[in-house]
Amino acid sequence: MQNHDYMTPTRLTPRLCRIGWLRAVLTCTLAVLTFYTAMAKKTSEPMEAYLFVYFTGNQPSEEQLKFAVSMDGYNWQPLNNGQKVVSVDNVARWKCIRDPHILRAEDGRTFYMVMTDMKCTEGWSSNDGIVMMKSNDLVKWKMSAVDFPTAFPKLFSRESCERVWAPQTIYDPEARKYMIYYSLQYTGQKLTIFYSYANKDFTSLTEPVKMVDYGRDILDADIIRTDTCYHMFLSGIWKVTAPTLKGPWSKLTEKRLQPTWMAAEGPCVFRRAASSATGQDGGQGDWCLMYDCFRNGEFNFSRSNDLETFELVARTETKGDFTPRHGTVMAITMKELQRLLKAFPSDGLTVELLRREAMPEGCRQLIIDERTPDGQRYGKNPIFKHEYTCDPAPVVWGDTLWLFTGHDVPGPRNYNIPEWSCFSTTDLRHWRQYPSIMSVKSVTWDRSHQAYAAHAIRRNGKYYFYFSTNGSGIGVATSDRPEGPYRDALGHQLVTNDMCPWATHGWRNIDPAAFIDDDGQAWLFWGNGVPYYAKLKENMIELDSPVMRVNLKDAGYRYTEAPWIHKRDGRYYFTYAVGFPEKLAYAVSDRIDGEFRCQGLLAETAGNSNTTHPGIVEFKGQWYLFTHDGSLPGGSGACRSVVVYRLQYNDDGSIQKVKLDSDGIW
Known about the structure:
With 666 residues, this protein is mainly β. The protein folds into two domains: 14-364, 5 Propeller (Tachylectin-2, Chain A), CATH 2.115.10.20; 368-647, Glycosyl hydrolase domain, family 43 (Tachylectin-2, Chain A, 5 Propeller), CATH 2.115.10.20. Helices cover 8% and strands 39% of the residues. The longest helix is centred in the N-terminal third of the chain and has 29 residues, at 14-42. The model is unreliable at 1-21, 35-41 and 276-282 (pLDDT under 50).
């Protein structure tokens, strides 16, 4: 191996470094403004979708270039039914590739791809070069390969060049050339980041120059430019910054930027359009950091406004014909999307399907597992571990279970609940969380500022949300969509304290639960201390009877609050909280307005919570009990978390007692 000293930039003095930083920042800012001005002129069409380029595994058939598309940048559909879209057999030394990166050129019309020329079955040190591609339409690609021992024989031999991994392209405004940077390792050296410049035809490279050296192996660099500096994300998931592409780069602190605990590699950061989920151009949106959680079989997507703190948005499992590994994402126009769908069709894949699967702005996609986001091992219960949730109200519409909850927030007082939340699932493992469906601040007649329990129901294509606050009564809000947002339908209470004479305390009108019987009659149950009910009119926003008291024969299990009605095999089940700290009891009746006889306890006190709140629903042939406890780290009777259990019935219709634990339904 020959001397590589010239591959390391000249050392800068502290004074020159400071002057260089100032000059570099001004240069970078001017270059960024010039770049975006040029892009605005040359790319008149809005970016409405995303292209994901990737490979899928460690076998030769998987180390091929594959494409997937998305309307939101989180939910992906593979093109060409998950098969390779472009063959590299004629240029790649190993006829296999990994780690593809795609970039739209400054002119807005040209596209560049670079990727690792490697065959994993030949060993992790088998690759000596990269593949370079250029296209004007994303369909037809001109390609070449750069084999480092052949291209740079004075620097490398076949034996000394051990790894050339994960190349990426970025435009260098100072050099006015496209820079290719990559992880390079040769005999006796650590794996670190080098760079070269591509020629005009994008077919060859200049000699490698060391970009950073932290005295340790680093790889999978992804560099993006903002109006102040360059950000280099690394496998880890770490970040360093510099005023120019040539540095000086900041100290490596190994601060993990990912908001999840899983081992991750292959970071990719891209800018989302402001309204990408709706397919409407809204300018620049937030940043998305995606990374490959390779040991867990999923990609994670996080968003940020400042590239310093990231919030988990989506966990996308890799399964079926979509099993991506390290890859990158680029925004595309609608015309480009349609061109790709035509050139690489997949069964049933259309723009309309992509729109339906797109996640509305402000949502999250969650996967239930045994850990909190920071990695603390836990049981499968509670369901949601990223925030506190309470007072679950599950409903099933079609093949989807919708779950409405309160949102406990730690604060100076008990039951600090500023808003109501909504989640949905089709399998109880993969959940979508929607933006807050309603804030208690929007309720003009409320005095408490506490969003107590609520329940949603659907009738005639409209959704009705019955909600309570602490001492102000029960209201009803409406929406045209299950996930809201909901608006107060009346501007005043549906139920007030003076309508309920059997109690005198101020918070007696809480915990509404709606039910539509088989004959179409709608009912509303509620109450603290005393269980109340009344008929609802067809319009669902007015009572159609006087307020009545539930005829409950409690057998010593005195009613406290949190009523829930469900029907099974012609029998009505009335579940409620009893005592304090609360347990769950249930009663049955042959008539919804008849006598309910208590059958005993359904569950003991929930862990670390003095309240409970049942929600019972049948979903895909199985009955489930939802309630809440205080078992999350930092949890309590005022910082609760929703849990779920299977509900089992005996032959006589009685319900088996539920054991409340962290296993839940898994």
